[in-house]
Amino acid sequence: MSKMFMFDALRLATDEEMEKDSTVCVIGEDVGHYGGSYKVTKDLHAKYGDLRVLDTPIAENSFTGSIGAAITGLRPIVEGMNMSFLLLAFNQIANNAGMLRYTSGGNFQIPIVIRGPGGVGRQLGAEHSQRLEAYFQAIPGLKIVACSTPYNAKGLLKSAIKDNNPVVFFEHVLLYNLQEEIPEKEYFLPLNKAEIVREGSDITILTYSRMRHHVMQAVNSLVEQQYDPEIIDLISLKPLDMETIGKSIQKTHKVLIVEECMKTGGIGAELIAKINDNLFDELDTKIVRLSSQDIPTPYNGSLEQATVIHPHQIVESVKNIIQK
User: Fold this and answer.
1) CATH number for the domain that contains residue 240
2) Quick check: is 172 catalytic?
3) Residues 229, 204, 182, CA angle at the centre, nearest 5°?
């Protein structure tokens, strides 16, 4: 085991897969000599050359076109310096990456990973604080992953690089400096499985990305007050792991969803729909979701913090649900 930051875990995953497979390449803004805006590609250009770690102009609607490279045999890892600006490449991701395997009758595979930082940071402003997981969740043909720890970041990214389908890989901008012991031995994690972070019997809390850590802070307080919540990190946002979610709900019969996504049309909204469709008879009370405010994220620090969910709100919601 060795302790490392999440950005180092992502870098190591990329390095290991590039070393094993010459078709794996990295493309994006400042990924080469600068080493990436969050140092995920640091020094890789020196090891693999400027053509396998390719710096691009600031033009997401251009370099995301490496979907064509994926069709012709490469395995591109596209780094968005900030995932918010993948909106500029939405057409390519939706109509090309998501659909070409289907519209070609299976003649084309699209082994591309589109990864980078997203979420609400610290005073990054509205345009750099987008949560695009809900935008992409509606697109057929994509897999969507949200890592939350150095351990799962490395294992999930290695699996994403090997996958023959397009994977949109979300990293939270405030988790890059998170440290954790991870195995030195190579490992892979499934892209379609949720993680049971804590087993419990009172309530199922569904969360992902940075909110996993807010939930775990809340759990410390809840356990002291004799509550026993079960915590599930979704990890896979498309497809949702309804098998793991269903088994938990059949045990607890109560659900709280905690997300950084906006409430309207968010991941939580889709979860509620799926749970109501498939597990309604297992519920003892209505599903509650804690989501970000449906407003552009303010630049002002205090207002920015007021738009997202915090541990004390999770504690209060759990207590209200269980005591009903």
Assistant:
1) 3.40.50.920
2) no
3) 75
Q: What is the span of the domain harbouring residue 239?
A: 195-323
Residue 119 and residue 207 in one domain = no
33 and 161 assigned to the same domain: yes
- For residues 73 and 178, give the distance between their C-alpha atoms in angstroms, rounded to a whole number: 35
- pLDDT above 90 covers a percentage of the chain that reads 94
Contact between 195 and 233 under an 8 Å Cβ cutoff? The reply is yes
Q: Which of 45, 128, 172, 214 is catalytic?
A: 128
The continuous run of DSSP H or E covering 292 comes out as strand 288-292
190 inside domain: no
Q: Are residues 202 and 292 in the same domain?
A: yes
What count of Cα atoms within 13 Å lies in the side-chain half-sphere of residue 48? 26
- Which ranges of the chain would DSSP assign to H, the alpha helix? 6-20, 44-48, 60-63, 67-71, 90-91, 100-103, 133-137, 150-162, 211-224, 242-252, 267-279, 301-307, 311-323
Instruction: Express each pLDDT in 268-318 by its tens digit.
Output: 999 999 999 999 999 999 999 999 999 999 999 999 999 999 999 999 999
**Nearest-angstrom CA–CA distance, 18 and 44:** 9
Give 242-263 pLDDT, tens digit per residue. Answer: 999 999 999 999 999 999 999 9
Give the pLDDT confidence score for residue 307 in this predicted structure.
94
Of the candidates 17, 29, 60, 259, the residue annotated as catalytic is: 60
Per the structure, the count of domains in the chain is 2
Report field, pTM of the whole predicted structure over 0.90: yes
User: Are residues 18 and 152 located together in one domain of the fold?
Assistant: yes
Residue 324 reports pLDDT greater than 80: no
Asked if residue 93 and residue 45 are part of one domain, the reply reads: yes
Of 182, 211, 228, the position where a domain reaches its end is: 182
Tell me, yes or no, whether 127 and 163 share the same domain.
yes
Residue 146: pLDDT above 90? yes
Is position 60 annotated as part of the catalytic site? yes
